[in-house]
Design brief:
alpha+beta; Hypothetical Protein Pfu-838710-001; globular
Length: 158
Amino acid sequence: MERKFVVADLAGMRERLAVANPVPAPVSIRQGYLAEEHDVELRLRITDVGSVITIKAGSGLHRTEVECTITDADARSLWPRTVGRRLEKVRHRVDLGDLTAEVDVYGGALDGLVVVEVEFTSAATADAFTPPDWFGDEVTGMREWSNAALARHGRPRS
């Protein structure tokens, strides 16, 4: 269960990243989509620490996510199948006390876009969460703000 926001206050976000203890260090991510049908996505993610295939089903707060580690060689062989459905970002983790915010700073075609996601263990915890001001507008469940849509269509128009 996660909530997603478009960071509006970049200065506030940079301030939080500057004072945050690395939890862990930022990770560079190349992400591509192998297949999409209705509300099911098959995602390939390549990072400097390994590669995974992820199946996501559903939308909004209630999504099913299954992740499987694959070899870097297998990831490289699948990567060409993601043409036209790719994005790149650097993920930073920020400690929010009992929770961790994942701040994604996009590059490439999405350069300048920054989003933040927070995962929750229950709907009650998600509902009770009050985001800091620097989080900006919530886009949880808005299909045009999903990573798959960003990879395929770019940043949504305001």
